[in-house]
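Repro case for the chain-ordering regression, as requested:
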Amino acid sequence: MKLSISALLAFTLCAGVVQADPIRQGNLEVDGAWARASIGASRPGGAYFTVRNLGNEADRLIGLSSPVSAMPMLHETTVSEEGVSRMAHVEAPEIPAGGALVLEPGGMHLMLMELTGPLEEGGTFPLTLIFETAGEVTIEVPVLSIRATGPEE
Amino acid sequence: MRHAMPLTPLQKTLWAAAMLAAAGFAGLTWSGAPGASGPSNVAQDTFRPEFRLEDAAGRVVTSDDFRGRYLLVFFGFTNCPDVCPTTLIEVAQVMDDLGSDAAQVQPIFLSVDPARDAGMGLAEYTAAFHPSILGLAGSPEATQAAAESFKVFFAREDDAAAPGGYGMAHASALYLVGPEGDWLRQYDYGTPAAEILADLQARLQGHLP
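-- result from build under test --
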């Protein structure tokens, strides 16, 4: 999922940045994006969003890029029966036909590693999602309080 | 990731089974349920967790410093973007909602990644969630001793997909220690703040130990 800087720049320059929520791309709809404010830039940031598949065929999220992170990656938190939590890298998750890929606290999340600067509450940043079938779309992610637990209504 | 081969349903099932087995093994190798390996000189399920660690300013902090107050202890690490903030947000909510009773409860974030956390502004991290949360870190030995004393599991796991090339698997519950220093209970990961609050209030009002 780590993309080269040139690829990242190309995405930033070419992809149309759209603000309105939800955002339609092909048969997919991206909604409810938010990130938690970071403390400085030395620790990874966390962000969440939902992708709904309105079509009849499954799609896959095959790439991510954002100018705020040199290494954006999907991780899933798992908590074992013994209560031990771990994180696992998720590769190319499927968005089933008629279903959704949901990122939320305590489950799957976008980990923004190698932040290029702090994620400040009240700001926004572009995030490009690349889908196998639907192509790529860039959304604006609002940065909420460090104590936020979900997207703004 | 762009070259990832789609997995067949059977492959997915096998992977899921393998991961479950690995997680189960990790849990079994450390027989961590409270009471499973408790000190022999106290009644079953009654023990006193102890720690001797340092706060962000380098002051030594021990479990004895908090007698007379309840301790709400969470083990975590500051490079953890999901579970740790989620739990700290709940702790912050509980502390806000305790109002004037908050002085009788000390929340502690005990770092399981002390070498990295100590150099990364642990106090700044905990204060961002709530000013009352005390971040503690210590030597690897002191951290291991504290975890064993609480009978909790943590382990460093190398992971190329994690910041710095490793992550920490760690117990995700909140632990409650009473005013006498006794381990009272744990609140499992995901316990709503309101439930923790109600339990603490019942104790503070003398309805529970």
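Ordering looks correct now. The first strand of chain A starts at residue 17 and ends at 18.
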